Every structure is written in C-alpha cells, then in structure tokens.
C-alpha cells in the first residue's frame, strides 16, 4: 500500500500509520486492490475534496485524534503546529512565542494559515488558531470544522498531568481557567459540528464520534420526521410524510391530523456525556442537547448557539435560568417561572420564534395560531414580539383563549402582551374548543389554500403540537437532574422521580424524552386537578370523555380533557404503529373514548403513575407550605405537591415541576393564605402579595406588564368556527395587506 502515499509528504504519514503498514501481511493483488478501493471510496465519500478540521482547547486531544481519524480514512494528516507553523518559521512554537510576544504571535499564526491549503485531509489546529478571524475564514472555505468540546475541568486536569502550566495568553492577571473560558467564544464562532467528549474518553472512541458526526453532517436524510399516524414504513395514509426539522417547525400539524415525531427517535447520550455537562451552564447544556436533536442542514450549530444565547439571556430574571430549590425532605422544586411571562412556556417560546424565523421561506407571510388555557398565550405573544422589526412585518400571531376560563391576571397579561404583530381573542367557550378549532382550521385545505392564494399568507402553530415547542422542554428536565448531581444530592446514575402538573401532556412528555435520552428518571408522576381524565386513563387504560364536562379550577393551565401530546407518547410505546394510533384517536374523536390493550397499559404503567388533587387540597397545600417554609407555591405546583406527597415512596429524590409563578393566580393564593377581603384589581392583588415578603418574590415581568396594561382591550367572539375564521382573515388583511 505504500504507493498510495507516494505523492504525500513523508511528514504527513504518522508513525502509527507507518508501523501499522509495516506489520500488515502481503496481500494478493485482487484483495489488496479491493481493500485499497474500499479505503479510497470510504474516505472520498466522507471527505471528497473537503478537509476535516479538528478544533479545540489545548489538551483536547486534537493531534492524536486526528491521527486516528486519518488512519481510519487512509488520508493525509496535518498538524498545524508541527507540519505548518514550525516548518514555516523554522523554529518551535514556544521559541516563536518567546521571540515575538502574544499579540504578534497570533498575527503570525494567522498569516501562516492564510498561506496554507490542503484537500481531503484531516487537519489538527492549534488551540489559538480560531482567534485569528481571517485565517479561520480561509480554513473553513474547504473544510468541516469539528469542535472537540471537552469540559474545562477535564482539560485542566490533563494539562496538569502533562505538566503544562501556561498556554498562549496566560498572564499573572489571568488564570488558566479564565483563558480556557475566554477561548470558548472563538471555538463557538467557527465550528460546524460539536463533538462533546464528556469525561475522560479514549481517543479511539472520540475518533469514532468525529467520523459519526461528519457522516451525520453530510447526510440530512438521517433525520427525518413522520406523523404519529403514519404506517410503519413512514408513509402516511394521505401522502409521504417524511419531513425535515425546518418543515415540521413551519407546518406544526401533520397533514393527516397526526403529530410530527423523529423517524429514528431521539439521540441517546452516554453516561460520560451527561457527566460532562454537570459543570456546564444552562445555556451550554441547551447547546449540546439541541445540536444533537436539530440537524445542521436545518439550522447550523453556530447559528443555533446564537439563538439559544438570545433566548436565555437578559429576559430571564435568574442567571441559572431553571434553578432547582430544595423544598422539604426528599422534594425539590424545579423553578420554571423566571422567564418574562412567569411560566414554563417561556422556555420554548423565547426560543421557538427564532427557530421559526430562521426556517421559513422569505417569500411568504405567516400567521401563528395559538390556543391557550392560560400561560401559552402570553408566552407566544411575548416571544414573537421580540423578533426584529423586519421579521414582525411578515410574521403575526393570533391567540385564542377561553374568555371565562383563565385567571384575571392571565387575561390582563395576554392583553398587555399584545403588540403590533400579536393579538388576543377571547372565545366564549373552553380550551378544548379552542384547540380543536385550530386543528380543524389547519386541516381545512380550502380555507388555508384561500389564504395562501388570496393573501400570500400561510398558517402555522405555536402550541405544543409543534415539535419545536417540545424540544426546549427536554433541556430543563435534564438540567434539573444534573443540578442535583452538581449539588451533591445524588451521584450520577442514581434515579429520581419527577412530578408534573399535567394537562396537554407536553411537559411530562418532554421528561419522558429526557429519560429516553439517558437521564436516570425512574417514574413520571402525572398530577391532575378535578379534570382528572389522565389520572383515570393511566390507572385503567381507558380514555373516556363521555359524560365529562370541563371544570374550571384554580389551576387553569391543566383544565384540559383532550391531551394532544398523549398521541406522541402512545406512538412510542406502540412501537411506532401509526395505524393503531390513528385507530385510537379516530375512536376518541368519533365515539368519545378508547381503551388500550393490556400489554400497552403495562408498558405505560412502567413509566407513569398518576393522581389528582381537589380544589380544597390545592389551597391547603399552599397554606401549609407557606406556613412551614415561607415559600409560596402557585396553584399548579400545589396540585403536583399534593399528588407527590401521596404517590412518592421516599426512596429517591422527587423533582416537582413548578410551572408558573404564584403571582399569576393571586386571588386563589390570597384565598389560600386566608385573606378575608380581596380587591378585584389584579395590580392591587400583586401589591398585597408583595407585602408578605415571601419566597420567591413577586415576578418583575408580570408586575411591569400589568402596570402597562391599564385599560387595554381585546376582541371577544362566539364559539363558532366561521367566526374564528373571519377573525383570522381580518387580521391578515389588516397586518399584511
């Protein structure tokens, strides 16, 4: 095989490559040719004329991993330090640094990159190469940049063992950790692919990860989506339903009425990868998790990182974004209310508008339709109102909510969040009507076609039926577990239970997905209020709406009888049998009930347990927790607390999702705290609550929104499909025409 290398510079053939060639037995010509052809074909298919460019901090293992990758592909291997810089300068890197100093060294290093060219090679950059913009732009023109992301603590340990006590830029005023953190911004600017290395992992394993990541990068066909009502082959009864992430973000609902899910499931992280995220910030965790779930052909990794940083920036009042707080005993609260509208919906809806904007074609206007039982509405309105002005001109939002089915503060908040591209409409019905109406509008091809032809406007969904709403929620469930490990509450691998107030099944489904991806969750506890259809279903396998009427409660976000995202869960446990899912939900639609087969119910009960909470018990829990801890639960969290108390076995920690800030439900909270006279003005109610100096304090964003609301108004309409369609057309005429 030596003749393959005869035109390669000898210095590009690693010692490992030479020894392996010398040890190989002589092959017969046909066998040798077949192997040579196979080797050439595999590397040519993967690389073509492109280079694989390995980037990362000192100690990331770029050189040795580059050699292994090159050997596996039988292609040239170039180490920038050894094969380019030292050859160009005719001196060692350390001598050059000593000779010219830090600033001049970076410039000289960049100039060397600008003069360098290669193709079909594996290239290992120096740790400081990414700090020279022009040099990196030149390298990226003919390369796929792979960021070897190794936790800072691991890098520092490696450098210490290598007796490296200084790297480029280290000075008396900067620690090694500071320099490593500072450099991350440059790595994040240039990479196409991130290979997260977790705790110490063998170089051979990382090399395989690099190859797998490059294959994924080059093959977007690997990550398609199908409808939950598709056949096992992925073909819908109406059409071929294979879609990409960018398609499902825009479409929301599948044409056959099902919900989009990844055809090959979600990626699974190793224990080492999860452990590598223990020291990470929330934003860093989100980047790593979401990059693995969103193909770079849909949204490039560097752009996704930019979107995540924007979504979870200054608009969250807590720097930890989703902190975990000890409540009592083995119970912990995952606080999901630090976003601008004070509910867990902000985690998806500060992110989704940017994902949506990136994915849509520029040639069309879009109207986002939303049905809300309380929290989603203000979160959607706020999220889409934060887009750039040019984007707001072509993207508008219409929010439908039950006029008499949300709390006064929630209604004031939705009115206050209305902007030039975002409106709210109260419907004289309940949430189930609003949600069903939107689904029917999406599947009404005559109406949607008319809007497209007449006004150049397409409809899209922002409810949790949209896949982009679910993905961000996986992050905070994984992050909560990692926080418990980081706080020393549990070692990694020990299980936890998670209890979630549940209505539309989206939040608890996201926790289930986190479990599928490798987070050690034991049981998911579904907590219902008086609308306990899910509790009955999980206990019996019978989903029965016959004779049920929706009951208005103190926890309106879970006042839901038709749980849309349950369909995605059943699709998983039914082994992606779309025909069965279609049969079940057609039966629910046409006859008001369905029943799971025994084996499916047994599968379900391995994941889920359920309970429900009365109104009296909800208020009693709020009073009891405040009396003993000084902490005020919102009504939904109180529902979960009551159910957790009843169902937990106290053999492991239980994380209770605190899905909203108590400020949003001031009348119920004041009643729970046994205040005799309650002023009906929402702002007065918040001021009264703030006088308690409780934990957590009054939500800043909610208070500001209510101050601005004043005498704000909104439209109200009858529970009639034609009336809703009229409002949609009128909004389009006013905003886009």
UniProtKB/TrEMBL annotation:
Pathway: Amino-acid biosynthesis. This is THNS1 protein. The gene is Thnsl1. Its cofactor is pyridoxal 5'-phosphate. Pfam families: SKI, Thr_synth_N. One of its GO terms (molecular function) is pyridoxal phosphate binding. Keywords: Amino-acid biosynthesis, Pyridoxal phosphate. Belongs to the threonine synthase family. The modification N6-(pyridoxal phosphate)lysine is found at residue 345. InterPro entries: P-loop_NTPase, Ser/Thr_deHydtase_PyrdxlP-BS, Shikimate/glucono_kinase, Shikimate_kinase/TSH1, Thr_synth_N, Thr_synth_N_sf, Thr_synthase-like, TrpB-like_PALP_sf. Residues 239-312 form the Threonine synthase N-terminal domain.
